[in-house]
Specification:
Layout: E1 13-21, H1 27-35, E2 53-59, E3 62-68, H2 78-93, E4 96-102, H3 109-121, E5 127-132, H4 139-152, E6 157-160, H5 169-179, H6 197-213, E7 221-230, E8 236-244, H7 247-254, H8 259-276, E9 280-288, H9 296-301
Length: 309
Amino acid sequence: MTDVTITPETPQRAGFVALIGEPNAGKSTLLNRMVGAKVSIVTHKVQTTRTRIRGIAMEGDAQIVFVDTPGIFRPRRRLDRSMVAAAWGGVSDADIIVLLIEAHRGMTDGVQTILTQLRDSVGDRPVALAINKIDRVKAEHLLALSKQMNEAFPFTRTFMISAEKGYGTDDLRGWLASELPVGPWLYPEDQIADLPMRMIAAEITREKLTLRLHEELPYQLTVETEAWEDRKDGSAKIDQIIYVAREGHKGIVLGHKGEAIRAVGKAAREELSEFLGRPVHLFLTVKVREKWLDEAERFREMGLDFNDG
C-alpha cells in the first residue's frame, strides 16, 4: 500500500483594497500599475480622480479589487465635499486600507488629518503604509520617515515603492493577496474594472483635456458620454459633451480655430480605440452650463452622491 499525500488546493481569496492619500500622492498610478492596464485617470494636476474607481488585479488565487479614491483634502465647495465623502466611503467598504504618502513631502498636515480620521474608522482592519516616489529622496530620509509614520499610527506593514517605475509594487501586491479574506472571486477573471464603459470613455477624454490644457484647464469642467452606438462594422460611435461653467471656459477648451478640441479628440479617440480593440468615432461638443455644479444629474454621471455635498 502506497501512502498518498493529499495537498488541499489553495483557497480562493477576494476583497477590496482602498487606496487613500492626499491629492497627487500617486494612487491612480499605483492602481494602473497593479491592474496592469490604464483604468484610472493619471495627470500631474491634483484632484483629477473624482469618484471611486475599481480596478481588478489577479495575484495567484486571489482577486484584489483596488478602489482608487479621490484625494483627501480640505473641501471648499459641493463637488469637493462629495469627492472627499467618496474617498471615505471607499475606506468604509474596504477589507484592507493602503495609505500612500509622497516620500519627498513626508508627514504633511493633510497626512496627519487622514491619520486622525483613520484611527476613528478602521477598527481592526489592516492598514498598510506605502511611501511612494522613493527615487526622489535618500535612503536615510526614507528610514526616518518610516519611523515617524509608524510612531504616529500602528501600520500593519510598511512598503517603500515607486508606483511610476514599479519598485516595490510586486511585494505590496503579494502581501495584499495573502491578507484578503478567503472567499469566491467577485468578478470574472478577465475583468479589469467595474466602471461602465461610458464613464471610462468620459474619463479618458477628461484626462486628455487635462494634459492638453494644463493650468488653463478650468476646474469646473466635466465630460459626459451622451450616446454610444455599436455599429455593424464593429466600430463604436461615441458622442460626448464637455460641460463648462462659463463662456470664457468654452474658448479655452476649443482653442484657437478649434485646435485644442481637435487635438483632445484625436488623443482620446486613439486611446479609446486601443482600449476597446476596435475603431472609434468620437464626437465632442462643448456646452456652457453655468450651474452644472449644482445639478444632481451631473454628480450621478460622475458616480458621486449629490447629497454628500
